[in-house]
Amino acid sequence: MSLVMPSHPVGGISSINNRPFQPHNNVLGTPSSVTKVQATNYDSAYAASLASPPKPKAFSFHKQTTPGAGKEGMQSSSNTAAIPKHQQQQQQPRSTDPTSPSSPKLAGSDSAPHRRPSFMARFLGLDRPQKSATHSRNPSNASTTGCDGAEPTNTAGNTVYRAPSLAASARSNETAFAQKYGTCSRECIGRGATAIVRVAHKAGNSGGRMYAIKEFRRRRQNESERDYVKKLTSEFCVSSSLHHENIVETLDLIQDERKHWCQVMEFCPGGDLYTIIRDGIMLTPEYNCCFKQMVHGVAYMHKLGVAHRDVKPENLLLDTRYTIKLTDFGVADVFRTAWEKRTHKSRGLCGSEPYIAPEMFTEPTYDARKVDVWSCAIVYYTLVYHGIPWRVAKDTDSNYRRFLEAQKEGRDYEGFKKMKPEARRLIQSMLNPDPEKRPFIEDVLKDPWFASIALCNSEGRTPDGIEHNHYTEEYIDRRNYIRRRQNQQNRRDIR
After folding, report:
1. 0.85 cut: is pTM over it?
2. Can you give the residue ranges of the Protein kinase domain (predicted)?
3. I need a surface site. Which of 137, 383, 444, 449 has the fewest CB within 10 A?
4. What is the average pLDDT score of the chain?
5. Catalytic residue among 256, 272, 310, 328
6. CATH superfamily assigned to domain 164-267
């Protein structure tokens, strides 16, 4: 079956992060190029290599010389007694017989040296002890290998089964990837600083299922394995614990057939909100619906003690059921654990400049919840104006200076005149330069205008029967084409 590959980013990684929105009749003028700010710069996606610790030192047993009968035995005994104890061990003769227990060969030849599992292997449980060999009651049917691929080794006449290496465990993961998620496409549908995104298709009934596969970069030479694994697993640990209709579902962290570490996510074929805003086909009720769904997803994260810190249209995806889903948790921060009541301040500059709150540029620590509230307000502005209000929230930006002057004078900012008064009042409060006066996401949910926004169902209809269209014309044409082909195939099957 030939796959129709989307030309938009999937899984929260966009290849157009550095391209700004071009406002349509925007009184603020055309902003300059948007600069992508990343916490860390990464290369292409590859897996971490297993660490090889130093080879353990070999040791040997020495046969003690027993005094024999007669003169020779008496001489040997007397010489041994005359030598200090710390030098007696060095003068003991070693046997040259390879089968002798005193042979140095026994100290490391027959049994392979212990190889300490890497940190990634221990994290994924690849270092767990293997089962013992299975014994068949019928010697003729007995297997020459132990369970889990263990190979037999003859030692002193006894058959000992070695545990399989970590490479064998990795091969089992490769097989598991193909069995669970099918074939991964070579075509890259999304690219970011930390990884690239491809699509995997698993054949099955009703056309099978598709997955978004995020391939992480490989470990750098000057990067420790622990630091690499921390970066690799932090996003997975956060995203896999989030289960909400407005958040992309993260399914697995696994190695593919090329031994690349991959994060498996649900596939959102509707594209990202950036592309939909760029096409400009949504009306006021439709982008209000998108805004409310986005706020619901952020509110769910804050309830669990997690802040996204990179909310923007490129990280908002659409599935086939008119649902907005938040993705890309690479810079997400846990500001409160489940057993804590006190929130922690966040550190570091991350995200994209037009969506970054001003306190992130000036303060060493900040409340990440207020940062997400600021970013949500900027996203709503882009929905209404198809552009960004300013390039960066600094005094060096002329548009942002005019906004600050309007805030100090207590008047409405002229750049928000297109919004309804109720919406303008909420958005201006969410964009308060003082984070202490900025509302929390729970306060946004309680706003009367926000509560009055009508959400569409999985068929794109509101409770009043109004139809919403959240997709691009390209996606609608492709979806109609696929439906026509499925109907034709169904008619052939009936005949």
Report:
1. no
2. 183-450
3. 137
4. 74
5. 310
6. Phosphorylase Kinase; domain 1 (3.30.200.20)
Phi, psi of 388 (to 5 degrees): -105, 145
| Distance, CA of 324 to CA of 487 (rounded, Å) | 28
Dump the DSSP string for 282-324.
--HHHHHHHHHHHHHHHHHHHHTTEE-S--SGGGEEE-TTS-E
Specify binding-site residues for ATP.
214
Task: Report the CATH architecture of 269-495.
Answer: Orthogonal Bundle (1.10)
354 token code pair: 């037009």
Query: Residue 204's CB: how many other CB atoms inside 10 A?
Result: 9
Q: How far apart, in whole angstroms, are the C-alpha atoms of residue 346 and residue 369?
A: 10
- Look up residue 17 and give its DSSP letter: T
Contact 183, 258 (CB under 8 A): no
Q: Of 1, 31, 135, nearest to 399 (Cα)?
A: 31
Cβ atoms of 357 and 435 within 8 Å: the answer is: yes
CA distance 444 to 439: 7
* Domain boundaries along the sequence of the chain: 164-267, 269-495
Task: List residues forming the annotated binding site.
Answer: 214
Sign of CA dihedral 394, 396, 397, 400: positive
**For residue range 171-228, what is the model confidence (pLDDT) as tens digits?**
555 567 888 888 888 778 788 777 888 999 888 766 678 999 999 888 888 888 888 8
Known catalytic residue at 227: no
Write out the DSSP string of 54-94: PPPPP----PPPPP-SHHHHHHHHHHHHHS-HHHHTTTS--
Mean pLDDT of 309-328: 94
